[in-house]
Amino acid sequence: MNTSTIDHSPDLTIRKFLIDLENGFPRHWHSNHAFETQLYNALSFSFPAGEQAFIDSVRDCLPMLPADSRYDTLRATAKNFIAQEATHRRVHERYNAVLAEQGLVNHWQDWIPKRLAKFKAKGVHPMNFLATTVAYEHMTAVLADILFAHPVLLDKATPDMQALWRWHSSEESEHRSLAFDLYAALGGKYRNRIICYVIAIFWFVVETGAQTINNLWHDKTLLKPSTWWQFLIHEFHPTKGMFWLMTPLMLSFFSRNFHPWKNQSQTPAKAWLNANTGRWQAVGIGQ
Ligand SMILES: [Fe+2]
Ligand SMILES: [Fe+2]
Fold it and tell me: How far apart are CA 224 and CA 145, in angstroms?
């Protein structure tokens, strides 16, 4: 049991994100581009099921912590992490309802529970589900960091959608270490963390690709040359290509000394939240 550094998360605020999705949003809300729009839409499709899996993995492992008061802060932060992820699920459920009205089909929501059920049937230990959450939480934090470091990546999206993705990013940044800290406090092994990370990256790439292609198919833009040009620019542009921006941050996870807050700061997320107080309402603060 590692008790030297237990909880590195700041006090997590539970926020209600203020957005009206009743009237929907444009079909190509991101830069008027099919590719970027359907890529982000694919990620949104994954969140209700994916973030529920993160919540479940944390809930399943929390009782393994000793009753010791040294873990009280970590336990309280875990509750707030669960509340933040639950809020994300609810907002993305409303977002995804608009996508369904636009004719898109959410396949990702079925892939996640099916895969989890298979692993559970094989008797995979709850700590390995937590390690998988640690892996996905690193990926969401990497995406958040990139969106804050390169605002140009979202600047041509509609204002409401910019706000939605930046709000979610700010909270992913804020709670980036909860799953990791819980895993470390429970004595989680480096080897298992890495195995689960490699598996998670594999499924993330396959499922992001498959759902994005399916979205583009239903959007009737899959076979347009402009869509594929947008893909190449988005992924491989020399200065703002996601592939180049993500790779070094993704590789940092392999370090034995990795911690989600290493070389990171709360400043970008806090700056966005402070500059956009009209977009959210605090409904619970800190412990
Ligand atoms: Fe989230
Ligand atoms: Fe998260």
Answer: 31
CA of 123 to the centre of ligand 1 (A): 27
Gap between the Cα atoms of 104 and 48, Å rounded: 16
Residue pLDDT, tens place only, 64-114 = 999 999 999 999 999 999 999 999 999 999 999 999 999 999 999 999 999
123 phi-psi bin (left φ>0, alpha ψ -120 to 50, beta other): left
Nearest to 55 by CA among 80, 31, 76, 30: 80
pLDDT in the model for residue 205: 98
Ligand in nearest proximity to the CA of 137: 2
The residue written with tokens 């944390």 in the block is 58
**pLDDT per position as a tens digit, 131-160:** 999 999 999 999 999 999 999 999 999 999
How many angstroms is it from 284 CA to the middle of ligand 2? 17
pTM: 0.95
Distance 221 CA to ligand 2 centre (A): 31
How far, in Å, CA of 120 to CA of 117, rounded? 5
What pLDDT was estimated at residue 6?
Answer: 75
| pLDDT above 50 for 287 | no
β-strand 14-17 against 280-284: which pairing, if any?
Answer: antiparallel
280 bridge partner residues = 17
Ion ligand 1, residues whose Cβ is below 5 A away: 88
Q: How many CB atoms lie within 10 A of CB 62?
A: 18
Three-state secondary structure call for residue 16: strand
Chain Cα centroid distance, residue 70: 28
Q: How far is the CA of 51 from the centre of ligand 1 (A)?
A: 6
